[in-house]
Amino acid sequence: MNKHLNKYILIGCISLIAGGCSIPKHTVMPERVAVPVSADTISLNHIAAIFQDEKLRALIDTALKNNYDLLAASQRVSIAQANLMQAKNAWLPTLNVALTAGVDKYADYTLNGVGNFDTNLSPNISKDQRIPGPTPEYFAGLRSSWEIDLWGKLKGKRQAAYSRFLSSMEGRRLLTTQIVAGVAGLYYELIALDNEATIIERNIQLQEAALATVRIQKEAGRATELAVQQFNAQLLSTKALAYGVKQEVALLENQLNVILGRFPQPVSRTSFKDLGAIPELTSKGIPVQLLLNRPDIHQAELELSATKADVKAARASFFPALSITPYAGFNAFKAGLLFQSPASIAWGVAGNLVAPVFNQKQLKAQYNITNANAYTAFYNYQQSIINGYQEVATAVNKLENQQQTYLLKSEEVRILQEAISTANILFTTGYANYLEIITAQKSALEAELALVTTKRGTYQGLVSLYRALGGS
């Protein structure tokens, strides 16, 4: 017996050694990219002020409450939380209440068959101890199983689940930032279109007055039918432009209502003239800490942490696993004797030390997959930092350039509006022809619309900066 036992122990030791021969080395990630550091940073003290418009705030609150993408993201957070709960409790032993019944017919030439036959012939057992054939078996009690986390496999899975739970929360925060920025961007687009409609309507009135004037002059012999046709054509073109703006307003209102999670309806908004002033940036430097706190960057960092933990758990799978399986309860081969204590009370415990031998290639493949995922997550993290830095730099430059452009465009509009008055006076006194009036009106209209576009771009640049900094 000892000879056979030693043989089994030797085989087990060889298996354990074989299982440990090809354990992968620890994964070492490359160096992280260094983010440029600036002595001066952007002041964000007044950026949040662009969202203080009461009507805009109401729209944002509606979107955060009703947006279906955001509601779905909340459910993804709940899923990640459930996975975390499952991973956190994986190291605890399982404990199950068991009630089992079965029957066996042992052959005459089996260990149990011979043993039962011989036992029934013994004068040392009572009537209740005689073993029937076929032999039933009843058990009522507790069974447990407990895997001892010797090498940190369960701990690695727990760490991965925790990182992914935090990552899901960052994903929801990222989506929240995008929704807020999307609502604000469309809101300012609609306000700008309202202003464009006002400008177009004012120019329609001016052009109608100019058309009426040239018709009077034609009747007086001071203008030709060609002049009337040119003025009328310009008026029709401007009226058509107004309908184009109306269509764009309807399109953007529908887009905004989708984000708000509601059916198409008018969107209440403030007027263009009541918009607050654009906050000034105190410097051009990019705040590194705020940049690294962007939800997408933080999410990529957490995913990197999760994949590292996956690698740790996959590496631990190469080591032997120790599990303990105890049980305790009532056990008998007759139902009527099952609960006759203490004679029917049974308990036991077994320990298993298992090392992988023939499934090394499967474990190696799984390890290679998790290792590749870790490197992928690392490169994604690096790329997200570079993308974030680029987005912030672009948003800062856009905001500054748009502000300077707006100042120049404002002066251009002022001059061209004065030019219309000058052209009208010169035309009345015979020093200018009708084409010069038409040109002046057209140039002024285009300049005013360009001014609106520039201011819209300024607000969009501010919204982009808000989004690029992670909604800080």
UniProtKB/TrEMBL annotation:
Endoplasmic reticulum in keyword set: no
SUPFAM superfamilies hit by this protein: Outer membrane efflux proteins (OEP)
Predominant localisation class: membrane
Xref: InterPro entries: MdtP/NodT-like, OMP_efflux
Source taxon at top rank: Bacteria
Mode of membrane association: Lipid-anchor
Sorted UniProt keywords: Lipoprotein, Membrane, Palmitate, Transmembrane, Transmembrane beta strand
Record-level Gene Ontology MF annotations: efflux transmembrane transporter activity
GO cellular component, one term: plasma membrane
Compartments it resides in: Cell membrane
Gene3D superfamilies: Outer membrane efflux proteins (OEP)
NCBIfam families in alphabetical order: outer_NodT
Stated family: Belongs to the outer membrane factor (OMF) (TC 1.B.17) family.
Record protein name field: TolC family protein
Source species: Chitinophaga silvatica
